[in-house]
């Protein structure tokens, strides 16, 4: 285990996706590749701010429920946002599933073949798949009672779960242990396959909005900090490093990069995580508009029961605690008022203007502990709405009681590194379709195996295919 702590190579997941990781035996000789896609809603659909808020609201209703935080929604408007997802191979023989990337929940879960109300089609154009434990030679349904079962027992003696949602949606399922089949690229560019056993959820029943084909994918890839997270399970056994990186492309067809490892880029700033929290809570200290601090007590951003500031890639928009929202809107409106006409649309603060938003709207800074500032350009917090009026731009940061949530709207076009070893999150602006630098830590111990030394001498050459743009990127090591 000590060797794994010192010689991690990055595990890359880029633009479209195949989940990959390696066995301990291969960990030093290969780099895993996963592709990441952002799927927009189909042309002609009418998703708007109201629908996006409804999706996020249903999600946030369960964010602090303390049981199993399963993300279900994560889509966005036809003009900008969609679900960022990867394709993960499960079982023996392997079957591929399209799973949403979600830092706000723990469990990796998929729809089961026996699911009563799971969608049979998706408006995203994704061919849906259904997990069949009986068809996998390596599958094992977790029994109950069992020391590994965190929840209730079903009438069939299986380890099950039930989650009720604010919108009357319900999902039932059982826990399964099976192989995650992983494609990875070696330093010599050859492709190899490995696998690792993990516990995940198989959903056997959905009702309400959870069965909506308009937003359907095969499940969720939870990247939370809990023990049932795939990251926690795999890193605790030395299969992947306890750090991962995301870079979500905001414009065009989207896409991006997902690395089980650390993307190292000049200009990265880091801020500590709030300890003993199930989510990625941060110490937000202040907000500035055009360099002027808002008159807001920092205590309103602090973490406590039902309150806090955290990062959540499964949330589409961004949310600002009540006490800070009105001062924020007033400050932005004061800056743009000479050139833009304020207008309320679907409960959001919007503005009518004919000139470029970059010339009219201010820069906004979210200032965190350790002097780390998340600087947002107008394109990072505005949402264009053409459903009713041409030339209308809306602020995609919404008021929310008790919580400040950094969703995809403000996370896009930046590298975010989730460092679970040093308990910190870092970020920097980046074009997420470009090559990334994967950091290979230097030796910290004089005692290491010949395999470790071999890794240190190998050049790293990773080729990751961005399916949606038909181009090739390279990975550089530092």
Model description:
With 478 residues, this protein is mainly β. The two termini are 23 Å apart. The strands form six sheets. The chain has a 16-stranded mixed beta sheet that branches. It has a four-stranded antiparallel beta sheet with strand order 17-16-22-23. It contains eight helices and 32 strands. Residues 1-33, 40-46, 58-81 and 441-478 have low confidence and may be disordered. It has two domains: 2-264 and 432-477, Acid Proteases (Cathepsin D, subunit A, domain 1, Beta Barrel); 269-416, Acid Proteases (Cathepsin D, subunit A, domain 1), CATH 2.40.70.10. Belongs to the peptidase A1 family. It holds the Pfam family TAXi_N.
Helical element count?
A: 8
Shape: globular
Which CATH architecture of the largest domain would you pick? Beta Barrel
Name given to the CATH homologous superfamily of the largest domain: Acid Proteases
Number of strands: 32
CATH topology term of the largest domain: Cathepsin D, subunit A, domain 1
Keywords for this structure?
Pepsin-like_plant, four-stranded antiparallel β-sheet, globular, Cathepsin D, subunit A, domain 1, 2 domains, aspartic-type endopeptidase activity, 32 strands, 478 residues, 16-stranded mixed β-sheet, mainly beta
